[in-house]
Design brief:
alpha/beta, Rossmann fold, 14 strands, about 35% helix, about 15% strand, globular
């Protein structure tokens, strides 16, 4: 790793080893090898001192002398960049970049990289797990049994259902592949669908309003930040009575209060939500047994986490090499 310009770690002027901050809330918990690789590369590592998602002030403090950052979902704003004059590379562990001010990064010449491939199977499999739990009430029967009550609850099969997938990117397509063996009917919606892939996998493309009315299970896999929820009260009203709504993509895609109202009133039969508009989540869905909730855990499979972290390390090291003065 080439040295970077600036004060050396002992305070003397001249070249110094690059500094990489770990602002991600957890790193190398599944496997220590990504952290070992990072340290062996010759960089100085600054670890997240809180072990949780950082606030804007906390990430500002951490990145003050950083040349690169391995990031999670903490806010990486123009104000953070202004306080980190040496920052050259943001390497995101994961796919979404909603937390990064991309325009401000570009203006400052900061490279922004992510790990889009590693999360696909983990997020898709958790989606299917949530669908099955919502349909068969696995989560509520587990809670009943642990409370000393032998309570069986009548559920529904996934077999034969119409599954609507909004967003047919990597994860949406993988969800389709995973549920096909259940002999479901697939309907989909995407701003730029791969028509050949849809035809080969039996996915009927529909306008969103028509998909809402057809789907027994609606699962969202939309990329990019949305100005408003794509599924609000009006959209939920169009959904079939007793249907299941799933959001394991990104917070803000669903009006969570409208979802809670629909579950309370019985219009929807269940929901699975892994991502929320504000996290940690503290809202009415927590009190509803028909809602399966997980704490933004889509990427938290051991194999996927190792793959993402290893790729994030390679990204930040490559970015620093390319940004180093020649």
């Amino acid at each position: 790793m080439p040295p970077v310009e600036g004060p050396a770690p002992d305070g003397n002027p001249g070249a110094a080893e690059p500094v990489v901050a770990l602002s991600v809330s957890s790193f190398a918990q599944a496997d220590a090898s990504p952290l070992e690789e990072l340290r062996a590369s010759g960089v100085r590592v600054l670890e997240n001192p809180h072990g949780r998602k950082l606030s804007e002030d906390e990430v500002t403090e951490l990145l003050g002398e950083a040349d690169g950052v391995i990031a999670g979902t903490e806010p990486l704003t123009a104000a953070v960049f202004d306080a980190a004059p040496r920052l050259k590379v943001i390497s995101r562990v994961g796919v979404g970049l909603d937390n990064v001010d991309l325009a401000a990064a570009s203006e400052r010449g900061i490279a922004v990289l992510n790990t889009p491939e590693a999360v696909t199977d983990a997020a898709a499999e958790l989606t299917v797990a949530g669908i099955l739990s919502a349909l068969r009430h696995v989560h509520t029967m587990d809670a009943e049994l642990r409370a000393g009550r032998w309570t069986r609850q009548m559920g529904s099969l996934l077999r034969g259902k119409t599954v609507g997938i909004v967003g047919l990117g990597r994860i949406g397509r993988r969800v389709a592949e995973l549920v096909l063996p259940f002999r479901v009917q697939l309907v989909g919606n995407d701003v730029a669908p791969d028509a050949d892939w849809c035809a080969s996998h039996g996915v009927e493309l529909l306008e969103l309003s028509d998909l809402l009315a057809r789907a027994d299970v609606l699962t969202l896999h939309v990329a990019g930040k949305q100005e408003r929820p794509i599924v609000g009260a009006a959209e939920i009203e169009r959904m079939k009575p007793g249907s299941v709504l799933v959001n394991a993509a990104r917070g803000g895609l669903v009006d969570e209060d409208a979802l809670a109202t629909a579950l309370q009133g019985g219009h929807l039969g269940g929901a699975f939500v892994d991502v929320f508009g504000k996290e940690p989540y503290d809202g009415p869905l927590r009190d509803l047994p028909t809602a399966v909730l997980t704490p933004h855990a889509g990427s938290y499979a051991r194999e996927a986490r190792l793959m993402m972290e290893s790729e994030a390390v390679r990204n930040v090291l490559t970015g620093l090499r390319e940004a180093a003065p020649r």
